[in-house]
Structures are given as C-alpha cells and as structure tokens.
Amino acid sequence: MNTVAIDMDGTLLHSEGFVSQENAQALKTLQAQGHKVVIATGRGHKDVNRLLQAVNITPDGIVSLNGARVFWKGKLIHESHMDRDDAVHLAEWLTDRQYYFHVYTNHGMYSPSRSWEFFMNDLDIYTQDKEGGEEIKEAIRRKADGHHRQAHMNELHSAEMIREDDLTVYKFLIVSMLEEKLAVCRKTWGDKPSMLITSSGRDNLEIMHPHTQKGKGLLHLLKHADLDLSTTFAIGDNYNDLPLFNAAAVSIAMGNAESDVKHVATHETTNHDNHGVAEAIHHIILRSTAHNT
Question: Is the per-residue pLDDT at 85 higher than 60?
C-alpha cells in the first residue's frame, strides 16, 4: 500500500482551476487498489473538499495551509500557527506598503479593505509597458476576482483586529506580479527566526510559522495513521513542495515545475494541463507497485 501526497495548484489542478476527469479517475484507481490519497496544499481544507467533491473524490488525508492544519479521514489531527504579535506586525507592514494579502485564520480568510485596490495598482504597473497590456490586465483581473469571490473574504479593518478578535493565524498569502516588490518583502522578513517564507508561484509569497511545512504535515499524518514512510510518493511543482519531496520516499515533479524542484525530484511527469498527475500515477506509482509485488 502506497501513500500518495499531491499538491493542488500547478499540479492536480488545471490552470483554469479544476480537477480534470483524467486526474480524478487516476485518484479513484489509486483508492480502489487500496492506496491512500493525501492532498498537500497551501489551500484551506474547505477549498480542497469543494474542488474534489466536484469530481466525486474524498481524500484520505489533507495537509492544508502548507501543513498548518492536518486532517485524516475528515478529522483535525495537527495544527500549528504563527505568533500573534508577528502576525500583527506583518499585517501592519504589508498594509502600510500597499501589498495585497490574505490572512488565513481559525475564523476564515481576512484581507484589508484596500487590498483589492493595491492589487489593481500593481497590475497597472505590471501591464503598462506590455504589448496587449489591457487584455492581459483584464484576464488577470477576471481570474483574481473569481478567486476572491470564492474565498468568502472577511474584512481586516486593522492589523490590531488580529489581537482584538483573538484570531489564530495560520498563514499569510501575499500576491503581486511585481517581482521587485515581493523581493523587498522577502528581504525584510526572511531572516526572522519565528517565520518561514516560501512560495507556490512566481507571483506570491507565503509566510507562516517555521513548523508549518508540507513535509512536517505529511509526517504527522503518517505517524497518526500508522502508514509506512518508505512507500510514500509526493507530486508537486513549486518551492513550497520541496519539504514534501524531502519527507517522501519518492518525489515526482510536474513538467511545469520550477527548475529547482525538478532538480531534486526522483521523477518528472507531464504538465498540469496535460493530466500530469494521472500520468505519474499510471506510469510511475502503479508500475512501481506492480514491480515490487
């Protein structure tokens, strides 16, 4: 029996934000043969369930919010969170410098009232000198607006609201198309020992407690469920998947993965818009299982 831990964005999900029928069928095949399917993602578990229910999949486990909350058979088995003072100071700094960000908490997602305005300002700068800039801007705006509406965002009236409302903060997601702006944030906060900075794409940063990593989340899940580490597979595409790759016995990089991720992976599959997860399951994981039996 194998345990297969799979990232979502850039991996299991098509670039349009859905699970293809090919990938869904491959997950069903895994489970039908007695293997365990674990989703390891930066998304919250409710979002994971929403996306998988659309293709009639129930994962055995979920490592959500990059490992901040870990679920097995629908029950929360592990949780880690940021220091509340750190979260307040970071929210103040980001708001003062007009960064677009989300805060993932025990009471849902929060974003400052002017956050969307900050996002559109960055988008204007990003597209101003590009050929077809208006079309690019509209496509990005439409996609971002869809994500924003799906998230059921709460308004963060001030950074102090985190303390006043006694919010437990799991993760910050900071989004900008401006690489220089993200670099300033990484440089300012990257050396703080009580924070970990990673990324799930070139347009974002994720900031959380150092114990919040997909790999550590997977290890908590394996221990809780008494699953064998030596028969674990991980599939991913980006920097926040590297701890997952380090924890699993076998790692598989997507064809669209960052080059650093491909470099450390055991195998490579096709890209996420070409059902790369299904390809990995059928041609690497199940073949490996058949070879070992």
Answer: yes
